[in-house]
Amino acid sequence: MADQNVPPRRPRPDRGWDGRQRPTADGYRDRHVTPYGVEAGQGGYAGTTGTLPAAGPQWVGPDGFGRQGQPQPAGYPQPGPGLPNLDDDDEPGRRVGRRRALAALGGTAAVVAGGAALAMTPQVRGLFADAPQAGDATGTTVTDGTAARPSGQQPSTVRTYTEQNESYMGSRAGAALKKNSPTGGRIFSGPAAAAAETQVTVKTVLAKDPIRHLASRATFGPTPKVLADIKRLGIDAWLRWQLDPEKIAPTKAELKLAELPSLKLTPQQLRDQRDQLNERGVQPEKETIDATIARQIWSDRQLFEVMVDFWNDFLHVAADFDGGETYRNAFDRDVIRKHALGSYPEMLVAANKHPALLLYLNQVDSRKDAVNENLARENLELYSVGVDGGYTEKDVRQAAMLQTGRGVADGKYMFFPERHYLGKVKILGFSDPNASADPKVADATIDRYIAYIALHPSTAQYVARSLATRFVSDTPPKSLVDRLAKTYAANKGLIKPLLITLFSSSEFWAAVGQKVRRPMEYLVATYRALGVTPEASAGFSGDDRRTPYQQGLRQIQDKMRELGQYPMGKPTPDGYADVYVAWTSAGTMVDGWNEAGELLGGWRKQFTYTAPEKLVARPPATAGAYVDALAVRLVHQKLSAKEKALVLGVAGVSATAKVDATFNGAIAAVARTILASPQHHLR
Where is the composition biased (Basic and acidic residues) (predicted)? Predict the structure, then answer.
């Protein structure tokens, strides 16, 4: 249970969330501070009440401010958009309508953990008249957000990355998932030994193949090449290769990122060239997202990109904040990517001296006589020990006073000694006289504090649980979390030893089928499964200002925004939830299927596609054998007899019927139905 002294979690009225305020030239906003806080209408936040002793600072943090409106979480059911692109007519002669087949397959995508069918929301059931109902023989559980959650919390009020996951998993659906998750395990001498010795006992529709399992979790989606690489190199050697990304050659798609004009510019260059970039329609913060999407789809440094995505949720700075156009790409490059497989303490220290985080969480507004506590609080609550990590409100305020003086000038980090509070501080066991006016000494003291909380035992647990949730299960076994926390502490926050421990643990290999792809992950995996390449289709040309590659990446980003998840996309600093029940949305599920149809049709001409009739090199002559071959090509295993029958029903043929390479004209529909199966939704 959380320490009763830990302050309640509340939305912060900071500029990084609402995107309304810009810094002045030196990165420090002008505002009038009264004895009661910030005066309304002076660039600050009206509504502060109360005073502090005259000798102390005036607090400009979240206390006393009104709640900000927050967008409805993606996990909540949204109004269904219908099925504008879905093949929804039950054509004569078809045994199973395409809507019903997709519902039956896509709905059971949530069968995920153990036969506990979590899938279809009420909106989806409304679209499919004969879909299973809650409580029927299939055991389907409604996950429409109405189930009770711990402490009566709703996801919209949950603050931390880990806590929001736990809140969602407190639902009935979460309880069903937990029953099927591995409960314990042990560590082996290495990943290959763990894979060989671990028996998979959980219920799952996925093949219990360790190579496929590793490819599903350590990449953004298995491809024939990835599976072949793991088989050729072996599990241990493939992981060693992935853990040394600097030695992995860039792909053609990564080299084509040179077409994004803002990507290699420094913040100063972005400031200097702002007008020219605007005239060309260049949006640097969106190009950062575009580049991330390209790497997720096409980079061979897949484990590295998975870890970049993990840290972008854990140490989250939204790309779209006011200032993101100048600083977010540098944060991605110099903080997240630089340290993604390095040291988390070094990452957190670097983040706390980066303009992106200082602006996003208002540290530029904090000085000794007007302390803004936003960053100090999030450093404890989100980025280190966590809400249950043992800190108190006094710790938050002590940390906020210690961190005064940090700001931004001329687009760069700057320490302002005249703004820094001097006086003894004590935070979670860290203490320092904090008495030096020397800016180097004062700045180094803050660094030591940040490194201290990054190595706190509670941080070790928090990072371990988050990592286990990402790679293993929505309800990770305590045995694994404790083991990872010990590794984190013993290696002083180094990330590679954490991953080696993770992949050498039986809990990882026992958790086949225990994770469901979130919307962004589903879309990226679909591009990878279909072998889409970054070159433009024959005859396609870009517009006057953007190449086909630029246009195509932006279209993918726009689609991800429609689906509710895109890299660095969440406006609040807690990052996206990483559990399935946060993402049960009928509209999102159908939209993903429709996008698969777009790719199978090759409609986005900015890229090149494999024609669906050529996905299988030598298509079998009978429908049943063709479905088997296509399933192996797209989801790397055969479907069950029931699933296979549903797919055949889409084409209106029997298993023994003779078909040509186009599946008698139904190949795109058949392939899309396979991509709506649980085998593609699960990772």
Answer: 11-33
Dihedrals φ, ψ of 387, to 5°? -65, -25
Contact 143, 118 (CB under 8 A): yes
Cα(240)–Cα(551) distance, integer angstroms: 35
Question: 235 and 191 in contact (C-beta within 8 Å)?
Answer: yes
pTM for this structure?
A: 0.81
- Report how far residue 321's alpha carbon sits from residue 637's, in angstroms, rounded to the nearest whole number: 42
642 DSSP β-pair partners: none
List the structure tokens of 395: 């710790």
Q: How many residues would you count in the chain?
A: 683
**Which pLDDT band holds residue 66 (cuts at 50, 70, 90)?**
very low
For the chain, how are helix, strand and coil distributed in percent, rounded to 5?
50, 5, 45
Helices (H), 44-181: 98-107, 122-127, 161-169, 172-180
Supply φ then ψ for residue 248, to 5 degrees: -95, 125
Residue type at position 299: S
Closest of 220, 199, 150 to residue 522, by C-alpha: 220
* Residue ranges per structural domain of the chain: 15-69+354-381+390-454, 98-181+517-681
What pLDDT score does 174 carry? Answer: 60
Residues 102 and 119: beta-carbon distance below 8 Å: no
Q: Is the confidence at residue 7, as pLDDT, over 50?
A: no
pLDDT bin (cut points 50, 70, 90) of residue 504 is very high
Q: What end-to-end distance do the CA atoms of the chain give, in Å? A: 32
C-beta of residue 316 within 8 angstroms of C-beta of residue 567: no
